[in-house]
Amino acid sequence: LHAFPTRRSSDLMGITIDCSNKHYVIWPNPIGSQMHKRKNDLLYRCNSIFWHIGILNSVVNSINDKSQKEKSDLQRIVYEEWDKVHYLFDDIIFNLISAFDYFASLVHIIMTDKKDEFKKWNNVVKKSRDSGYKYPDTEAMIIDFHGKWVNKLSEYRANVYHEKTDKPSAVIQDDFFF
Question: Does pTM surpass 0.70?
């Protein structure tokens, strides 16, 4: 139920197996082994994200159920449950950013054969901007995806992590109820 969607998981496993079989047929092979390790690490991180989403859905459903049963005590319910929603949401955001680092390390080994280099997402983006991988279509896709999605998510995460929580203050909550 909370596992990384089966199709995506299968796609990721297939790409890794195809690449390792094509280039690293003789086993054991340190590059092929490292490639599979990084794939497994990425799947672990993705499963963590989906597990957190499942727990978040459970908390939200619990709040909805309680609010239906105890309409007169809605303020108490929100105060008691509000932080749980934000703890889980923060964990999902942090895990998403982390998943891009895991993904980058897999992409990097596939594109360079350097088993001892662990590149994080921003390093892979920089190398793509410098045409360091010699795969123009993939480099363009990485740069585009970074600008449209990952960079914004990373900025949001940094704001939550370093500056403030992303939730209304008690004053705003009080204004909502009165």
Answer: yes
- Where do we find the tokens 């994200």? 49
Q: Lowest mean pLDDT of 66-75, 104-113, 154-163, name the range.
A: 66-75
Q: What is the DSSP string of 58-127?
A: HHHHHHHHHHHH-GGGHHHHHHHHHHHHHHHHHHHHHHHHHHHHHHHHHHHHHHH--TT----HHHHHHH
Cα–Cα distance, 86 to 99 (Å, whole number): 20
Nearest Cα residue to 167 out of 77, 81, 97: 81
Q: What is the average per-residue pLDDT within 14-35?
A: 70
Q: What is the per-residue DSSP string for 119-143?
A: --HHHHHHHHHTT-SS-HHHHHHHH
Distance of alpha carbon 176 from alpha carbon 178, whole angstroms = 6
User: Which tokens hold the place of 1?
Assistant: 């139920």
Are the beta carbons of 142 and 125 closer than 8 angstroms?
yes
Count of alpha carbons within 13 angstroms of residue 59, beta-carbon side? 18
Residue 48 corresponds to which amino acid?
S
